[in-house]
Amino acid sequence: MADEAALAAWQASQQERKAQREKWAHEAKEREVAQALKVLAKHGHPAPGDVERLKQEHEALKTAHQVAQDELTAARLVVDQDWQVEQIGELKQGLRDRDWRDAWRETAREAGMHEKAIDHAWNHYGLKPETDEPDRKILQRLCADLRQEYDYFWPSAPAPTPESQPEAWESQPSAPAGSGRRFVFQDGGWRSNGAN
Length: 196
Description:
Helices cover 68% and strands 4% of the residues. It is mainly alpha-helical and 196 residues long. Among the domains are: 13-45; 91-152. It has a two-stranded antiparallel ribbon with strand order 1-2. α2 crosses α3 and α2 (51-111) packs across α4.
């Protein structure tokens, strides 16, 4: 019996020691948790009781984010539409410029303007078309004005050709005596015509 009493006493002391160790472990864990919460609070992290509040804030922020995304999408559509309208305007102006310039080229060719002067005259005058269809009367009036101001855009009287050379000499007034040609090209070489 003595052994049983000693065994029971020993088991009781072991139970007390186990309970004491569990108590100390629980207290140590509480101290660690409290210390960890202090560190988290120091760095701005929430306490465990704030989880519900954070979930609500998260949902509110998600909703606000979605509203902002919708507004951004709407703003992009407006900007895209403005850009498209601007691009359409630029393209229409480009087509208008091309049509007017083509009509100008036709009108200038019909008026007999030098081919090289046609684009130069257009750029110099700086006509900016306002209507979609070219106005031929305006272009003809421009040709007439340019002929008055810049006659060098048009060819002068045609120079005499070798076939019409004698006719040209006959049609020109006669030169005073002694002012004729001194040298003439004849039989493959230059010869003196006897004039001083």
